[in-house]
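> Could you send the AraC family transcriptional regulator prediction when you get a chance?

Sure thing. Input:
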Amino acid sequence: MQNLTKNQDDGYDFDILLFDQFSNHCLANTIEPLRAVNTLSRHRHYSWRFYTLDGGPVESSSGMRVEPHGPLSMGQGATLMVMPSYGFRGLDGWDTTRQLRTAAKRYDCLAGLDTGSWLLARAGLLDGYRATIHWEELVEFAETFPEVDSCRERFVFDRDRITCSGAMAAFDLVMHLIGEHLGPLLAMEVAQLFMTRDSARSHASLSRPSSRTVDRAVTIMQEHLERPLTVGEIARKIGCTQKTLETRMQLEFGLTPQGVYRRLRLTLARKLVTDTELKVTEIAFRSGYDNASAMTRAFRTEFGLSPTQMRNGGLK
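Output:
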């Protein structure tokens, strides 16, 4: 299951169950890409809430305090992410098990992040499912829960269950979901924001030669935004034919190389519009356009607003 249930506003809800000693790293890698999507798209595609078992505050392993929205008993919706991290073996008692079993009836999907898989398995909520966990715990996990089909993967989707092996894998998981929900181009923009490219596609696609070719092409495009290269020049730099590059770009993004290149340049233009006071003529030059009029037309087509309108907060 990769297409999670949408909410009534056509977005996706995530409720996150936190415990004392949760990992800041795992939480940030889960939430920040979702926040970035909302920021970049100027639309609330994702929303999230924090819960604890009793509604009281919790502290991360590094002392960050989180005040939840309430107790788990209040939560319901699309996806519940269970995130205990450190000290998880001391959390798998009857109260946790009872509350997770009850919550499973109110959520469309359950996700165990990092060591959250252990708590889900203890509650019997992974019986008959393929699942993973932090790899340091995988052997013991498999021995303790033989009813679970344990596997050594970064993240696993199986029907209405998602499991993930750690903090970095949580980032990969969320990037994969963004690509599935909203398309690879927006996922690529988020990956750019966090200065990573590979996570913009799923772990399955990354093993394909086409993905490696596309990654190298995108890197070259990013290095030549102000003075764009031709598609033929990019193909020669990565050692393939222009036809091969066009085919593989179409496979990964559903766009021609020119379309991907244009999106990269306009993404840069949007950042300069919103984050600087540069004149539109200068932004056009830095984005690889010969004149401001051409850039403005392309900008309006891509984002629905002119650069000036976007800078003024969307006012026309």
